[in-house]
């Protein structure tokens, strides 16, 4: 019976993956160009001292509405391999409808050949976002390779001073044995278990201030074994959230995952220090 249930669940998940892929193919051209961003405000770069909320708003700007908590930092959305910001259309809409005001979707080039180089570029983007918005910290949501790039930035390049919460969706934290085009692209080879960047993420990270929330699915056919998408590190404050019934491509678009992401971003203060596991249907 368990085997029959798994086969039926995998069949449904595969069908959903096909639908998601078709829909994303239609949206893909809309995300090729970089997102247009407002010009920097009159405020300078924020300092690095910890703070529970954003710096005061620049003169002449509109205050956040009462329904939106004033201490929510910007959310940076980072896509996976051979993808672009269009993958986050539904998640971005969900966050916006629930009061998030500062949402940033970043593109990195498919020609990027090194996770470490991409992480350095992400760091420069985060500094620009902090300077422009007046916030001292950001939250990041990364799908697949995007989550790995963000984790490298946080854990190895000092990004924990800027990133409050890092949410990853189907990210190969421990590497994957089934990486598409594994022999053809250097950055995909770096997603395999035993690669230099993966091994660097196993190194000690004492005092890392970022909270990690990793969503993983037992039906993810890209991350093998599926548990490799969990964050397992003694120095990191991490919660692993098991998602049932969906595959790799559906993670950024599924409404239950979106609800879990919203909860993870809002739960930072109360959940800090409570490493463990959870699940969503």
Keywords for this entry:
globular; 7-stranded parallel beta sheet; alpha/beta; about 280 residues
Report on this structure:
With 281 residues, the protein is α/β, with parallel strands linked by helices. Helices cover 32% and strands 14% of the residues. It has helices at 2-27, 89-97, 115-133, 145-156, 186-189, 196-200, 255-266, 268-271; strands spanning 75-78, 103-106, 138-143, 163-169, 211-217, 237-243, 276-280. Strands 2-1-3-4-5-6-7 form a seven-stranded parallel β-sheet, sandwiched between helices. Strand 1, helix 2 and strand 2 form a beta-alpha-beta unit. Helix 3 crosses helix 4 (145-156). The longest helix has 26 residues, at 2-27. The radius of gyration is 18 Å and the shape is globular. The two termini are 20 Å apart.
Task: Show the helix and strand layout.
Elements: H1 2-27, E1 75-78, H2 89-97, E2 103-106, H3 115-133, E3 138-143, H4 145-156, E4 163-169, H5 186-189, H6 196-200, E5 211-217, E6 237-243, H7 255-266, H8 268-271, E7 276-280
Parallel strand pairs: 1-2, 1-3, 3-4, 4-5, 5-6, 6-7
């Amino acid at each position: 019976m368990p085997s029959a249930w798994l086969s039926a669940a995998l069949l449904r998940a595969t069908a959903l993956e096909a639908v998601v892929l078709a829909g994303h193919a239609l949206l893909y051209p809309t995300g090729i160009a970089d997102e247009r961003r407002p010009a920097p405000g009159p405020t300078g770069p924020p300092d690095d001292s910890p703070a529970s909320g954003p710096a005061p708003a620049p003169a002449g700007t509109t205050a956040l509405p009462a329904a939106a908590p004033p201490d929510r930092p910007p959310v940076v959305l980072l896509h996976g391999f051979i993808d672009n910001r269009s993958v986050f259309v539904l998640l971005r809409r969900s966050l916006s409808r629930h009061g998030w005001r500062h949402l940033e979707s970043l593109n990195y080039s498919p020609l990027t050949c090194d996770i470490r180089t991409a992480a350095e570029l992400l760091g420069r983007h985060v500094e620009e976002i902090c300077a422009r918005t007046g916030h001292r910290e950001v939250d990041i949501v990364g799908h697949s390779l995007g989550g790995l790039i963000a984790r490298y930035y946080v854990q190895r390049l000092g990004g924990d001073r800027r990133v409050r919460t890092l949410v990853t969706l189907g990210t190969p934290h421990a590497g994957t044995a089934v990486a598409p085009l594994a022999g053809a692209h250097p950055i995909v080879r770096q997603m395999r278990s035993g690669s230099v960047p993966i091994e660097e993420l196993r190194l000690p990270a004492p005092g890392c201030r970022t909270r990690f929330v990793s969503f993983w699915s037992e039906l993810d056919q890209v991350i093998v074994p599926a548990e490799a998408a969990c964050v397992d590190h003694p120095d990191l404050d991490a919660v692993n959230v098991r998602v049932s019934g969906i595959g790799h491509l559906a993670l950024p678009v599924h409404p239950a995952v979106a609800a879990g992401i919203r909860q993870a971003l809002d739960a930072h203060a109360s959940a800090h220090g409570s490493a463990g596991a959870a699940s969503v249907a």
